[in-house]
Predict the 3D structure of the following.
Amino acid sequence: MKNFLAVFDGYKLCESTFNYAIALAKKSDSCLTGVFLDAFFYHNYNLSKVLKDSSDPESDMKVWNEKDQLQRDESVSQFQRLCEQAEIKYAIHRDNSIAVEELQYESMFADLIIVNKHEKFTRTDEKKPSGFIKEMLADVQCPVIVVPDHFQIPEKIVLLYDGSPSSIFAIKMFSYLFKDWGDLPVDLVSVNEGDVAEGHLPGNILMVDFINRCFPNANYSLLNGNVEENILAYLNDSGKNDLVVLGAYRRSKFSRWVKHSLADVLMNGLDKPLFIAHH
């Protein structure tokens, strides 16, 4: 049985993450593990404000910490109740160390991670995608589905292909995890950035043979021009609730901070779930 990790901020159960996780677990007959990242230094109150304004900060912090613990416990109880109502096999993990490191370690033993694209595990405002999402996508050891704030049942699968090993690997991993989604329409999309007259599908015959084995009824779309602009326009004009498959993020940490990836662009420009995998 496959193991899917649904990742939650310990203080709240993200509804869209849970709904996507339930749908995906049912579709693939997988165990759903709720991972609640309860970092010991992450509070639901402003610690610096308490230390600055309180006449008895130690006593006040004890009260706030007790409230935090109750809220975290309620999120876990809610997950348990909803999984039982959905009649799926589930487990619960509560991690109290550094969130991204805990998740990277757990990913070695998982088949898929489901997380909301706005999770950040800090009270500080951050540029999107957050540092947590960037680090997680770069270093986890299994595929990730980054989900939007509102749940919609996928109506079409869009495979983004640029000829790179990571894009092929992402398509392979998706086909392995969701063999039963062959009933949905599948579009393979590639972008030619060169002369329009020279446009062709990278890998050509080998790629077509590969896709025919995994998705025999797939359609092919070869676009021309800027990759980011064309893919965003294509997906925004789709008219369906797409689930988008792409490879990403196998770069140095410095490179990730100075140059965005296509996944960054799609997270900011779309409200669609993104299945992301890399070697």
Remarks:
- Residues 250-259 have pLDDT under 50 and may be disordered.
